[in-house]
Design a protein that fits this description.
CATH class of the largest domain: Alpha Beta
Protein name: Aldehyde dehydrogenase
CATH superfamily of the largest domain: Aldehyde Dehydrogenase, Chain A, domain 1
Keywords: NAD, Oxidoreductase
Structural class: alpha/beta
GO molecular function, one term: aldehyde dehydrogenase (NAD+) activity
Strand content: 15-25%
Organism: Aliiruegeria lutimaris
Shape: globular
CATH topology of the largest domain: Aldehyde Dehydrogenase, Chain A, domain 1
Number of strands: 18
Bound molecules: nicotinamide-adenine-dinucleotide
Strand order of the largest sheet: 10-11-12-9-8-13-14
Family: Belongs to the aldehyde dehydrogenase family.
Largest sheet: 7 strands, mixed
CATH architecture of the largest domain: 3-Layer(aba) Sandwich
């Protein structure tokens, strides 16, 4: 179709009906079938890696192929490895204890596939955010319909070709299109809908899903803080931030969004961080490893955020202040925003770019209060050596996840649940939590022949005495 939408399933409802009918007819796939589906997916990512790298380059403007491999393809392959290695254990029915009143009897939980899972993915990690949810759905024995982001159309095309080549449409189908297709997609009566995107659109998705009582997992965004203890290792922090704020041009849902430092830490940290960024990108704005901003609209949004902060009194320190003729038009200099205040837009909206506001606080307790006065973040980072102080921050704050003395690394630990809390999301996937999220936990009870219930009949006599024992 001229507008790029998939012709035969532009509304999706007929595709959903076909997938559901096929699911009901075939029943739950066994362990071997699921492991085989995951293997096909893993092999396809490997064999299509060059095309996926080129597609990401086309979508972003500049995103070095090695970066796409390291942050998008690699973690997806690792997640699939983890699922294949653990699937047998996850699928096995789990015994549950039975109280004396319910004996003799056997209680078990069976993890059944839900049916058809809808997946709506974001553009910033267009492979991982599409295929890790897909792999999770397949591991749990489901079928899946996917709506990739229209902001990464080249990657969406490769993903559709690739998935069409290894799965029948009744098992995995990709629907492409813009926000209108996304809105219609989110209203389909799936057995589960997993959405990755902003908190604002997440609200629309949940509203649409409410009409059909479709359960949702919402992987949303927000402002993820970094809290510094007095004994934080500033060199380590500078090194970590120089990566976390520049990889994918800071367009990462769990990128550190702002820094809460103690007053005397601000200057030494700023100097170390800017020096480290310059060292990492010797070509400046034209460096081949500097990923560019996804669209003109996002570029303008980010420039506005910086101008608003400057106008309200922030000191802006850009890593690459001078423009360069050979730089891509959407290359954007990483920048520190010193003396940031809560009144600035950059402290009110998720940044999703290579800027880092720094706010000076008097104490760690102050920093904790600052975080707790705001919506719950997707990630939180703590830098400090004293374990008790770190544990105190862990206990007193609520965030989707945490990395201590590191940035963003919790994402790559496949055995950890990944998701938000409050405004940053509902439900988690990855690892066993993902498998269970996309399964139905069905309890079954098998009473023995002499089960106590068989004594239950009117008149009840003295049996009532046992009811509240
Ligand atoms: P977005 O919410 O702006 O857009 C997501 C998708 O929603 C779009 O592709 C669009 O097609 C669709 N959409 C638009 N209007 C809709 C409607 N009314 N109903 C249903 N769908 C509609 O987000 P984005 O720009 O793709 O991604 C950036 C956001 O995603 C950031 O907030 C980021 O933090 C978040 N994110 C979260 C995670 C995570 O795992 N938690 C990962 C990556 C990105």
């Amino acid at each position: 179709m001229a507008d790029g939408t998939t012709p035969e399933f532009s509304t999706g409802i007929d595709m959903l009906a076909a997938q559901r009918a096929a699911f009901l007819q075939a029943g739950a796939p066994d362990l071997n079938a699921r492991r085989d589906a995951l293997k096909r997916l893993k092999n396809a990512i490997r064999s299509e890696s060059k095309r996926l790298q080129s597609a990401a380059m086309a979508d972003f403007g500049n995103r070095a192929p090695v970066e796409t491999s390291l942050i998008d393809l690699g973690p997806t392959v690792q997640a699939i490895h983890h699922m294949r290695a653990n699937l047998k254990r996850w699928m096995a029915p789990k015994h549950r204890p039975v109280s004396w009143l319910m004996r003799p009897g056997r209680a078990r939980v069976h993890y059944q596939p839900l049916g058809v899972v809808g997946i709506m993915s974001a553009w910033n990690y267009p492979v991982a955010l599409t295929l890790v949810p897909l792999a999770t759905a397949l591991a749990a024995g489901n079928r899946a319909m996917i709506k990739p982001s229209e902001l990464a159309p080249a990657t969406a095309d490769v993903l559709r070709d690739m998935l069409d080549g290894i799965f029948p449409q009744e098992e995995v189908a990709v629907l492409t299109g813009g926000a209108d297709v996304a809105a219609a997609f989110s209203a389909l009566p799936f057995d589960h809908l997993l959405f990755t995107g902003s908190t604002a659109v997440g609200r629309h998705v949940m509203r649409a899903a409410a009409d059909t009582l479709t359960p949702v997992t919402l992987e949303l965004g927000g402002k993820s803080p970094v809290i510094l203890a007095p004994d934080a290792d500033l060199d380590l922090l500078a090194r970590d931030l120089a990566f976390a704020k520049t990889v994918n041009a800071g367009q990462t849902c769990i990128a550190p969004d702002y820094l809460l430092a103690l007053r005397d830490q601000v200057e030494p940290l700023s100097e170390a961080l800017i020096a480290k960024i310059r060292e990492s990108f010797p070509g400046g704005l034209a460096d081949p490893n500097l990923t560019t901003i996804i669209s003109e609209r996002h570029l303008a949004r980010l420039r506005d955020l910086l101008e608003d902060a400057r106008a309200k009194g922030a000191r802006i320190v850009e890593a690459f202040p001078a423009g360069s003729n050979s730089a891509h038009p959407r290359a954007l200099s990483p920048a520190l925003v010193l003396d940031a205040t809560p009144e600035m837009r950059i402290m009110q909206e998720e940044i999703f770019g290579p800027f880092l506001p720094v706010i000076a606080r008097e104490s760690v307790a102050d920093s904790i209060d600052f975080v707790n006065a705001r919506p719950r973040p997707l990630a939180l980072y703590i830098y400090g050596k004293d374990r008790a102080a770190v544990d105190n921050v862990l206990q007193r704050t609520t965030s989707g996840n945490v990395t201590v003395n590191g940035c963003m690394l919790h994402y790559a630990v496949e055995s950890l649940p990944f998701g938000g809390v409050g405004d940053s999301g509902i439900g988690a996937y990855h690892g066993v939590e993902g498998f269970r999220r996309l399964s139905h936990a069905k309890g079954s009870f098998h009473p023995g022949k002499r089960h106590v219930s068989r004594l239950l009949h009117s008149p009840y006599g003295r049996l009532a005495r046992f009811a509240t024992k």
